[in-house]
Amino acid sequence: MTWCAPTHLRIGRRGGMSTDGMATGAATLAGMSRQSVHSDNAPAAVGPYSQAIVTDPYVFLAGQTPIDPLTGALVAGGITAQTEQVFDNLFAVLAAAGLTPADVVKVNCYLTDLGNDFAEMNAVYATRFDAPYPARTTVGVAALPVGASVEIELVARQQPLPF
């Protein structure tokens, strides 16, 4: 059996559906709940998405690019400076969710120049996590928003693993 979401309904506040298309705060769908997370210390979402969504026990962080949240501009410098800013943005959202880098279980990295930028991105990455490192995928892409060279997204777990 395949389940398809109705296209005419929008998820609204917990306990009801909204017809205005605005989904904020907690929402429910098929017994699952989700809560949005926002940090003023990271760039605001520029589209119809949240900086992060909590759905027990995981927190899914949207991809962050190297935008300085104070200026709204792409940080100056190469891949090292851009990767540092991306992690600053991500960790601000993690902190808003009450989590730390030790709670991160999966990382997806996107680079516009995988051949030339991987080593420098990897060097910064190694300073931001402790062993055992999160699982990671790194992908080369044709382009990223605002001319960024790197975008990174995270998945974190709210509670300790049982082992």
Task: Explain the overall architecture.
The protein has 163 residues and is α+β, with helices and mostly antiparallel strands. 20% of the residues lie in helices and 29% in strands. It is built from 2 helices and 9 strands. A 7-stranded mixed β-sheet has the order 3-4-5-6-9-7-8, with helices on one face. The protein has a two-stranded antiparallel sheet with strand order 1-2. β5 (52-55) and β6 (58-64) form a beta hairpin. α1 (79-96) packs across α2 (114-128). The longest helix is centred in the middle third of the chain and has 18 residues, at 79-96. The chain is globular, with a radius of gyration of 17 Å. It starts with 9 loop residues before the first strand and ends in a 6-residue tail after the last strand.
Give a nutshell description of this structure:
The protein is of the alpha+beta class and 163 residues long. Helix content is 20%, strand content 29%.
Identify the strand order in the major beta sheet: 3-4-5-6-9-7-8
Q: Assess the beta-strand content as a share of residues.
A: 25-35%
Structural class: alpha+beta
Distance between the termini: 35 Å
Helix content: 10-25%
Characterize the main sheet. Answer: 7 strands, mixed
Let me know the average pLDDT: 84
DSSP summary, beta strand count: 9
Overall 3D form = globular
* Poorly predicted residue ranges: 1-24
- Overall radius of gyration: 17 Å
Number of helices: 2
SSE string: EEEEEEHEHEE
